[in-house]
Structure formats: C-alpha cells, structure tokens
Specification:
Blueprint (H helix, E strand, L loop, with lengths): L39 H20 L10 E6 L5 H12 L3 E5 L14 H9 L4 E6 L4 H8 L4 E6 L5 H15 L6 E5 L6 H10 L5 E5 L8 H9 L4 E4 L11 E4 L10 H7 L7 H4 L7 E3 L20 H19 L4
Parallel strand pairs: 1-2, 1-3, 3-4, 5-6, 5-8, 6-7, 8-9
Helix pairs in contact: 1-10, 2-10, 3-4, 5-6, 5-10
The structure holds N-carbamoyl-L-aspartate.
C-alpha cells in the first residue's frame, strides 16, 4: 500500500452523514470494520431486516429505500460474491454504484495514488464505501481518513465482517438457533479471514468449536484466545473424519494460495481436505455444510444435491444481509 506522510484527522465515531432518523439500529453513520462491533441484540436487528429484504426481493424485486444514494466499491483484490452482492444490494434498494471492482489497475491507484487519497476521492462522490484490500488493517486506515462510512469487504488475512454476518444468518435460518451448536471449521484457519470473523462472532453464543487444520494452517492465537476467554469448548485435529459425525455445522474453506510466501508449502497442504458423498454418510441427518466460496476442490460437486449442502443458500443470503447493512449505515433501519 502506498502511504502518505500526513496523519489521519481525528473524528467522532459517528461520521458526518446528517441527522439521525427515527429508526436507528445503532449503525447509522458507522464504519463496519470488525465483528467486535456486533452484539446479540444488534445482530438480531440486522437479521430481522435481512429477512424483510428477502421478502421484498421475492415479492417485488426492489424498493426505493436508498434511492439517490451512491455506494463506491473499491476492490484491490479479486472478488465475485462480495462485490456483486453489494452492487446487487444497492441496486435493489434503488441506489447506484461506482464500481472499482474489475481491477484497480484502471484507476489512479496504478498511478501511485495512496489509499487515503483514493478513499477521500470516492467519498466526495459516494455516501458509503466498501473496500477490499490485501493488507490487514487497511479498512481501518481507510476509515481513519474517511468522513463517510467504510465497510470492510476483507482486509488481507484479517477480517471479513459482512461475510461472518451472512454466515451466522445462514446458520440461524438453516438450523433455527445458534446456542448449543457444535461447529467444525476446516481448512485454512490461519489465513482465512472469514474463519477469523465467524469464530469471533460465534463467541457471542454458546457453541462448541472443532478446528481441523494441519499445523501450519492452525487458527491464529489471538482468535483462539478470544474463544478461551469465553470458556467455550474447543477441539483441534487435522483429520476431518474425527469430527464429521458430531458437528451441526461443517464450515470448510479454501487454502488461501495468495497469502503464502513459499508456494512449495502451499502445494503441501492445498489438497488435504475434501467433502465427498462418502464423508457425508457419516454426518448427522440435520447438519449443514457451509463454504464462503470460491471452492477449489474442497467440496465435490456430487455433494451439491445433498439437502445439507447450504453453501449456495449461504451465498444468496449475502445479498439480503448487505441490503440490511447498507440500509443501516445509511440510517434507514
Ligand atoms: C472469501 C474471501 O474473500 O475471504 N470469499 C468471499 O468473500 N466469499 C473466501 C476466499 O476467498 O477463499
């Protein structure tokens, strides 16, 4: 990331977006950087709005709740789901989008413009900015400089809070509750930002964690410490067969090739796990398989027709959650 010498101006936590309307979820004018901003109460609120958004989309396709507002999508890393679901979310609520998603190489970033300057440029045209960037902490940096709300669409191996919200929403929709569940997380627990955010968010509930990874892809200590602080039960293994029969949620992830400095190390661990129909025979009848996607071999196509395969429903939920979040930071719910 290009940096500047100047220091970010000090700001109120609520950004300069006008007077708070009556309906205030607590997110009006706020950045969404980390799952640590969420409580069980405000999650319930967002999930309730997401259900309403689903009803609107199914019944009439769109609404004009955010008519006249503009979202800037600033993606320094590849994306299909996060970017297009944010674009669809804004469009279905009547707003419009500045899409810098097909490669920042076509923007002034390629001329050497810094992140703070790019963000300050976009906020002079847009009301809210979603940013994805390869560096951990970059969304916070953007938020430190911006007067308008910044939503973290993934900061390197750090966090991916909107994904965690849609993951949790999916668990609740599919299984009816979160307390009491046994959750297996499999694959790249070290670099997988969706794992970090979801594990942190699940700490608000009474869940059992079952982590499955090889030594070099184990969950980072800071996330593990958050779980330990909550005294939640944790198991760790490298063999998915050991946990498959016990879990209610099997959350599998792609090994994040782009985060390895040594590609030989990536080759060693890239094909360790695969969810197959044979493995699914050992799983509970009422359980779900989730994946943030894209998959690159971790789930065989033959599993797609299993009713327990929730990953495509999970992906669709992303749009409803992002509709709810945009409405919340723009002060409409
Ligand atoms: C994830 C991401 O970008 O962290 N994708 C997503 O947003 N759905 C997972 C991944 O890339 O493996």
């Amino acid at each position: 990331m290009a940096t500047t010498e100047s220091k970010a101006p000090a700001k109120d936590s609520r950004k300069k977006v006008g007077l708070a309307p009556n309906l205030d979820s607590g997110f009006y004018g706020q950045d969404i950087i980390s799952v640590s901003q969420f409580t069980r109460e405000n999650l319930e609120h967002i999930f309730g709005v997401a259900e309403e958004m689903r009803a609107i989309v199914k019944r009439v396709g769109s609404s004009d709740l955010l008519k006249g507002t503009v979202l800037a999508c600033l993606f320094y890393e590849p994306s299909t789901r996060t970017s297009s679901s944010f674009i669809a979310a804004m469009s279905r609520l009547g707003g419009t989008v500045i899409p810098i998603t097909q490669g920042v190489q076509f923007s002034s970033v390629s001329k050497g413009e810094s992140l703070p300057d790019t963000v300050r440029t976009l906020e002079s045209y847009a009301d809210v900015i979603v940013i994805r960037h390869p560096e951990m902490g970059s969304a916070q940096t953007a938020a430190d400089y911006a007067q308008k709300p910044i939503i973290n669409g993934g900061d390197g191996a750090g966090e991916h809070p909107t994904q965690a919200l849609l993951d949790l929403f999916t668990i609740k929709e599919e299984l009816g509750q979160i307390d009491g569940l046994s959750v297996g997380m499999v694959g790249d627990l070290r670099f997988g930002r969706t794992v970090h955010s979801l594990a942190r968010l699940l700490c608000l509930y009474d869940v059992q964690f079952n982590f499955v990874a090889p030594e070099i892809l184990r969950l980072p200590l800071d996330v593990m410490n958050e779980i330990r602080k909550r005294n939640l039960p944790v198991t760790e293994t490298y063999d998915v067969a050991e946990i498959v029969a016990d879990v209610d949620v099997l959350y599998i992830t792609r090994v994040q090739k782009e985060r390895f400095s040594d590609l030989a190390q990536y080759e060693e661990v890239k094909d360790l796990y695969a969810i197959t129909p044979e493995l699914m025979e050992k799983a509970k009848e009422k359980m779900i398989v989730m994946h943030p996607l894209p998959r690159v071999g971790e789930i065989s196509y033959a599993v797609d027709s299993d009713p327990r395969a929730a990953y495509f429903r999970q992906m669709e939920n992303g749009m409803y959650i992002r509709m709810a979040l945009l409405a919340a930071v723009l002060g409409k719910v």
